[in-house]
Amino acid sequence: MPDESTILEVTNLTKTYDTGLQAVKGVSFSVKKGEVFGILGPNGAGKTTTLEMIEGLRPITSGTVILDGIKTVEQPYVVKQRIGIQLQSSAFFQNLKLTELLEMFSDLYGSTVNPMELLAEVGLTEKASSLVKNLSGGQKQRFSIATTLVNKPVMVFLDEPTTGLDPQARRNLWELIAQIKKRGTTVILTTHYMEEAQFLCDRVAIMDDGKIVAIDTPDELIKQLLGRGFKPNVEVPPATLEDVFIDLTGKHLRD
Amino acid sequence: MYLLISPENTYAINMNQTTRSFLALTKASLKMYYRNKGAIIFSLLLPVALMSIFGFLSKGGGSSLKISLSNHATSEISKKFVDVLKGVDAFKIVEESEETAASELGKGNIDLQVIIPEDFGNIEDGKPVASNVQTRFNKGKPQSGQVANMIITQIVSGFDKRLTNSQTVLDVKSEGVTTNNLGYFDFILPGLLSMTIMQLGIFGVAFSFVSFKASGALRRIQATPVHPIYFVFAQAVTRLLVTLATATLLVGLGTYFFGFHMIGNYFYFTIVAILGILIFLGVGFAIAGWAKDETQVAPVANLIQLPLLLLSGIFFSRDGFPSWLKTITDYFPLTYVSHGLRKIANEGADLTQIPGDLIGMIVWVILVYAIAIKLFRWE
Questions:
Q1: How far apart (Å, rounded) are the C-alpha atoms in residues A96 and B215?
Q2: Are A46 and A54 in contact (CB under 8 A)?
Q3: pTM for the whole thing?
Q4: Do A191 and A197 meet the contact criterion of CB atoms below 8 Å apart?
Q5: Interface with B, mutate which of A52, A54, A108 (most B CBs under 10 A)
Q6: For residue B229, which of B17, B7, B5, B1 has the smallest C-alpha distance?
Q7: If contacts are CB pairs under 8 Å, which of residues 156-175 in chain A contact chain B?
Q8: Please, which contacts does A27-30 make with residues 24 or more away whose CB atoms are closer than 8 Å?
C-alpha cells in the first residue's frame, strides 16, 4: 500500500509500439509528495515514453499509473487538469505574446492567473509583450515552465528542461526548479546531465534500455558504487571546467 | 489515434468550460492570423491581380461580341426583342440567314448564332405561347459564346417576366432589361471567388495546421485538459471568417472598380460561398491531418488544386471539353461552387433553382470530412 506521502505510483509500466519495438519494459517506482524526482538515462532509454504514459499523452500497453489517487488510464483529462507538462520541444504558437499565451492556457484549465506575476516568477517581466518567436533558448524554456504553472499543479513534468542551454541559462533554470519545489509542488524531470541530477534531485531512477537499473538518492547511489570498490581512473580535480567557465564569464544570464 | 472524445473522458466536459476553451483558442487563432501579415498579403495578391487583369480587359470594350441573328418570327414582341439585343453595348449584331450564320460560326467569324423561332411572342387565348430562342456558339471560343449566351438568357427571362406578369404584351419595356448589362467580368468574378475559396481552404489550412503539428504546438494543447479537436474547430472558424472577409473584399473591389453586377441575392450567394469554404477547409484539414510536415503538404495540395483550377470551368466554359471530360468535371467540387455562384450572380437564381449544385456541395462536405477523420494523425 502506498503511504500518505506518495503522489505517484507507477507499477509494471510497459510500452510496445505497433512496429513491435518495446520502448518501456516493466517500470515501477513511486514519487513522494514535494520531492524532485529525476529519471536519468541515455537517449532512447525510454524516459520520454515513460513520462508521456504517466501524463496520459501516450496510450499505455500494460501496467498502472496512479497519480494523486487517480488512474491515468481511466481519467486522463482529470489527471491533466491537476498536472503541468513541459514537453521536450518547447514549441508554442510563435505569433502570440507571452501574456496572451498564459491567458489562453489558463482559459484551457478554467483557472485564473495574473500573467505578470507568473512572468515575474520566471524572470520574464520585460518580455511580457514580446512574441514567443523572439525569445532566446533559455527564455523559451523558462516561459515553457511558466505555462505549466497556470493551473497551480500538484506535480510538474519537465522533459529535458536544460538540454541545449548555455551554462548560465542552465544554472538559472536550476534555481527556478528549486523555487517550484519550495512552493510544495512535486517535480519529476528527465535529464542526461548527471551534475544537474545531483544538484536538483532528491531521488533518481536510472533507466537503460526500457528498464530501471537503479533507484535511490544520488548520495546513496554514489556510496553504493564506491562500496563495490570503484576507483575513478583519473584523479578528479576539486573543480570542473564548468566551474572555470562560470568563474570567468559570471553567473548572469545572457539572453 | 482517437479523434473524438471517448465516453469515459466526457465527464470533464462542462459546457461553460468548453465554451471558454473554444473561445480562447479561437481568439488565439485570429490573433496569429492577423499577425502573419506576409501570408495575408500573399493570399490577396493573386486574386486581386487576376481580377484587375480581367477587369481591365473587359473594360477596354474593344472586343465586342459578334452575334448573327436569324429572326423567323413576325410578332411585335420579337421585334422588341431584336431591338433590345441591338441596344446591348457589348453586342455587334448582323441579321442574316441561318445557313450563312452557321457557316460564319464554323469559320470562327462570329461568337454566337441566335435563332428566333416563328412562334416567338405569339399570343393564343390571351396567353403567350411557350417558345425557345435557340443559340449556338463557337466551341473554339467558348468564353465569348458563354458570355453572349448569358446576356441573352438574361434578356429573354426579362421578357418572360414581363409577359407573364401583365396581360398586355405591348407593355414590354426595353429599358427594364438592358440595365443588366452583363459582361465578361461578371462571368469571371464568381470564378475568381471560387478559386480564392479553394486556395485559402487548401493552402491556408494545410500549411498553417501542419506547422502547428510539426512544431509540437498541437502536442502542447494535448498536454492540457482540452482535447485538440477544439483547436481544429477554432482554426476552422478562423479560416471561415477570414475567407468570407476576403471574398467580401473581392466583391467590393469588383463592384467599385469594374462594375460587377449582382443580379441575384447576396444572402444566397453567401450560402453557396460558405458551403464551398467548408468543402475546401475539409480538404486542407485532410491534407494537414495526414501530412507529417510542410514538405509533404505542397505536392499533395498542388495535385488536388491544379486539376480543379483548370477543369472546373472557373475562368472559361467547360462547353469546349470532350463529352467524357465534361461528364467527369460535372462532379468536381469547384464546378458546383462556381456554377452555383454564377447562377445566382449572373442569372438571379435562388436556392431552389440550383438544387444540383447544393446537393453536390453537401455530398462533398460529408465526403471530405469523412476522409479527413480517417486520415488524421495527431503527431
A1: 15
A2: no
A3: 0.77
A4: yes
A5: A108
A6: B5
A7: none
A8: A27/A63, A27/A207, A27/A210, A27/A211, A27/A212, A28/A63, A28/A212, A29/A205, A29/A212, A29/A215, A30/A2, A30/A6
Whether the CB of B2 is below 8 Å from some CB of chain A: the reply is: no
Task: Kindly provide the b/e burial profile for residues B244-273, where b requires at least 16 CB atoms within 10 angstroms of the residue's own CB.
Answer: bebbeebbebbeeebebbbbbeeebbebbb
Q: How far is CA B357 from CA A165, B313, B320, in A?
A: 58, 14, 21
Mutate to test the interface with B, among A85, A95, A97, A107 (most CBs of B within 10 A): A107
In chain A, what residues touch B235 (CB-CB under 8 Å)? none
Task: List the one residue out of A45, A16, A58, A5 whose CA is nearest residue A184.
Answer: A5
Q: How far is CA B365 from CA A79, A119, B279, B356, in A?
A: 36, 44, 5, 14
Do the Cβ atoms of A105 and B224 come within 8 Å? Answer: yes
Nearest Cβ partner for A81 among B12, B24, B35: B12
Find the closest chain B residue to A88 by CA distance. Answer: B216
What SS3 class is residue A84? Answer: strand
Chain B CB contacts of A80 under 8 Å are 223-225
The tens-digit pLDDT sequence of chain B (379 residues) is 334 444 444 444 566 888 999 999 999 999 999 988 888 888 888 888 888 888 887 665 545 778 888 888 888 778 888 888 887 777 788 888 888 887 777 777 777 888 888 877 777 776 777 777 788 776 656 667 777 777 777 777 777 766 665 443 333 332 323 334 567 788 889 999 999 999 999 988 998 899 888 888 888 999 999 988 899 999 999 999 999 999 999 999 999 988 888 888 999 999 999 999 999 999 999 999 999 888 999 999 999 999 999 999 888 778 788 999 999 999 999 999 999 999 999 888 999 999 999 999 999 999 999 999 998 887 7
Write out the three cell numbers for B180.
443588366
Determine the straight-line distance between the first and last CA of chain B, rounded to whole angstroms: 9
Whether A93 sits inside 8 A of B212 (CB atoms) is: yes
- In the Cβ-directed half-sphere of A147, how many Cα atoms lie within 13 Å? 30
Q: Considering only residues 51 to 90 of chain B, which have any Cβ-Cβ distance to chain A shorter than 8 Å?
A: none
A103·B24 Cβ contact <8 A: yes
Task: Summarize pLDDT for A95-135 with one digit per residue, the tens.
Answer: 899 999 999 999 999 998 999 999 998 999 999 999 998 99
Residue B175 in grid coordinates? 429599358
Spatial separation of the C-alpha atoms in residues A238 and B292, rounded to whole Å = 49
Cα B81 from Cα B202, distance rounded (Å) = 46
Establish if B377 touches chain A: CB-CB under 8 angstroms. Answer: no
A residues 194-233 closer than 8 Å to B (CB)? none
Comparing CB atoms, the residue among B9, B28, B222 nearest residue A93 is B28
Residue pairs spanning A and B at CB distance below 8 A: 78
Cβ atoms of A191 and A40 within 8 Å: the answer is yes
Query: Mind telling me how many Å the CA of B217 is from chain A's nearest CA?
Result: 5
Nearest to B220 among A76, A87, A131 (CB): A87
